[in-house]
Fold each of these.
Amino acid sequence: MATTKKSTKKKAKTTKAKAKKAAKKTAKKAAKKTAKKAAKKTAKKAAKKTAKKAAKKTARKTAKKMASKTQVKKVAKKLAKTVAASKAKKKEAAKAKAKEKKASVPRAKTLSFAPNSRVQRQKDVAWRIIDGEAVIVSPADSLMHTLNDVGTRIWELLAGDKTLKEVAEILCAEFEVDPKRAEQDTIWFVKCLAKKGLVEPAA
């Protein structure tokens, strides 16, 4: 009987020990599951917060970009208006200058010259002989004209005291040119000078 009681006690102890171990394992598993769930929840919350912050930052950046683009567009429009206005002013100024040029030489394109015409240099034309070539500045547009040796000689002879035929005769003697050709070229050259407002009929 004593032996039976001892074995029963041992069995009871063994059962208790097994039960404790099983309880510990179950508790550990439950704790792990709980910890995992808690970690997942925490991670989800953190992810949501991070996503919200990122979304807010992105929204702010987008808003700033949109605002800057709007400002750039406004500035671009203002600049475009300014440029258009300046272009319009330049066009008006160019038209005014063109009118002034036409007014400064009113008869240049309608003047006709003949061999017996007497022509003289415009009084307000600035000119000088440099290295055998005449350098002339037209008063209408302040442009500089350079003549070759023959043109320079014609320019010197246009003092109003000689006819174009007489000028051509002098050229024939000095440059050995055909008389008819010299006369034609002289009249043509004088017409070109008149169109630029550099010469006029002698009084």
Note: Residues 13 and 19 are 10 Å apart (CA to CA).
Amino acid sequence: MSESTKLRFLSAWYCPFAQRLWIALLEKGIPFKYEETDLSNKTEEFLKLNPRGLVPVLVHDDKIIYESAVCVEYIDETWPQNPKIMMEQPYDKAQVRIWGDYATSKIIPLFYSILRSDPENLGETQKSFVENIGSFVKAMSPTGNFFMGDSFSFADIMVYPWMQRLEVLKHFKNFEIPSDIDWYPRFQKWLTACYERESVTPTIPDMKKLIPRHKRYVKTK
């Protein structure tokens, strides 16, 4: 059995949570077998792997792991070679975990809240979204391209897929992050660096196909 078949990555091309793990696998240079999953027609085999019916799912030999953040930590510990996504030093590791969790709990839910918001509530939701992104950006290292400076890490991976999808919010809600905010240049520097990262580029979906998939979240009245 080849090395790639020992590690199966069940994904869906449009899923930002699966994109997290995809980026991490490419960043680590780990051989794997990509398996596209039809989440609208879940098989019994897939539901046995993850009863929650979600991607990503990682199958490593006979071990099954799911939940994107857990999967990313798992591969970083199982394949400890550089680059270290979770960082080397305990304090740095704590920081990327703190801000990875912040992205998951304070930024990502508001992305979907904007799509679902009534017009009368949209402004307040957008304001909170911008403020929370600002808190994330202000916590970044002032030097280097990434959250931890020169090191591309767990913190970047946890939030980037949704920042790459800001075009979705522009399309449906005419939302853009104001360019006159003081932290905007640092945000753009980070966003560009992530977009151009070799481990990220192959995972970026076609926006023309991706945008229509978000219509189910949108509330217009």
Note: The chain has a mean pLDDT of 95.
Amino acid sequence: MGARILLVEDDPGLGFVIKDNLSVKGYDVTLCVNGEEGQKVFDQKAFDLCIFDVMMPKKDGFSLAQTVREKNQQIPILFVTAKSMLEDKITGFKAGGDDYIIKPFSMEELFLRVEVFLRRTAPTPATEDVFSLGKYTFDHSNLKLVHDKGSKTLTQKETDVLKLLCLHKDRVLKREDILKSVWGEDDYFMGRSLDVFISKLRKYLKEDSSIEIANYHGVGFRLEIKEG
């Protein structure tokens, strides 16, 4: 059986269609009809990916995501919603979501997003310490960022921040998670330091316009590399 997916959708028709289509693709899908049921099932079983509707009875998708994030920081969470306002997306990211898919959507779009998330979160060798970033090579162990125009020696903090971004590429990495991981604490002054480090990393990576460290205001940062 393939990856285990927790699907929480209160519309029985849509829930059945999504589950049926994902099952045909080989995924092991558990369907719940409200947030409370979804939380109970998540506590009882292990999953590789969560797909949550936003507007649900008893416990909405945002609240469910917050509960899941308290127990698991790594599992991808994809929101299925009719909401497309920026404020709603920010709320979802703050709740711990990784991405949105807006209704109505095609099954092909859903398949692609599921495949991308599962590929990104697949286990990687613990010894992996060299990352390919567009036209750059980032060597974490040796504190080196290499480009064909030369190399840059980074500080340990710069290296640690960039590695976190690389490990979570194309996913929003929360500010507090970076601060706790790199600085050991999350406070205002450390937050200002993080902003300085992000600015420096953007400057170091400026030779490749396909690389962007996007700022999700009030939430965190996401390392994005556009494919040419």
Note: Helices lie at 12-24, 35-44, 61-71, 86-95, 107-120, 156-167, 175-182, 188-204.
Amino acid sequence: MISSPGKTSSVARYIAVWLVASAAFTSVHAAEPYILGISDKLTIKVVQWKAADSSFQEWAALAGDYIVGADGNVNFPMLGPTEGAGKTSTDLATTIGAGLQQTLGLPTAPSVTVEVSAYGPIYVSGDVSTPGEYPFAPNLTVIKALALAGGERRSAEAVARPEKEMLSTTGALDVLEDEYNRLLVRRARLEAELTGQSEIAVPPELTDLPEISALLSAETAILAAQKRQAEAQSTSLTDEINLLTTQIEAFNQKKASTETQLETARDQLQKISTLSEDGLALSSRVASLQTNVADLEARLLDTETAALQAQQAIATANREQARLADQRISDLSLEKQTVDGQISALALKIQTQQGLVQEAALYTGAAVPGDQAPQYTYSIVRDGKELPAQIDTPLVSGDVVMARLALAP
């Protein structure tokens, strides 16, 4: 069959336009070819040139919309699952054409066009205003994805969490830290008391604290008062012991004098008793001497008893002095143990409160005193792996963009 010149010219023009369009499409995408990804929606057309009548025959049964599945394949009629993810549209078109040629036993491969009619989504998660699913577009980067998600959460949340929350959390932290510092100085005072020191050593953690002088002054006053009280108790007992010792010395002197008098009285009684037996002395004289001896013996016994009682009182005072010293050490040790527990508990509370302050800083955009300003970090989850990213990192469909806001440690 011979075609008319007009028809041949029309077909030639159609072929030329189609080739130019195909070349233009290829040249545009050759610069930065798009790599197909999961969930991409594709429009595929198959056309075969029929030389017999110089016309194109479109395979309408195969034309249509296809989706790159979760396994990365495109289920194409007569070919089954065909790998699509990771290829360009041109590569996929070539693969489909070659597959149809082989499957159908065609002398030449049909012409296949693959166009992306809708890109698979990307996902934005983390510290952004509106996390969720967003449509992909060529040349999409991390910063553009953040813009789609409404930007960083900090600016949006600052309205919902006013600055008074930041002031409240930092104020509570200041109170905890002040109490913590006071407990550190109190523990230093207790350690000074336990070791018998008259001055309090500055805790290393508080060397540069502006109000350390005031804290030390208060605890030093307590240290001095406690020392005076302990010294007063010890001095009182020492004075009592000294007094009792003096009394014992007096009793010993009195005892020696009484013993001398008693010895003399007994000698006189013996002599007078002998004379009375011989009728040379009155019996009344003997009775008087006997009474005197009995009185001296009673006085000697009273003196010895008083000396023993004084010695017992000294022993009691010594025991009381030792008991007070031991009790003071025990009380100081117990108080120090209590303070140590309070310091540990406060350290945990401070750590928790610091976390709340940091969280408030994240939401309000404020910097914590002494810390760096909040910083964003980005990553991309692709093919099940999390990869570090920058704001200009290019994305592909199916990527999950993670934005995290954190304070520098």
Note: The two ends are 83 Å apart (CA to CA).
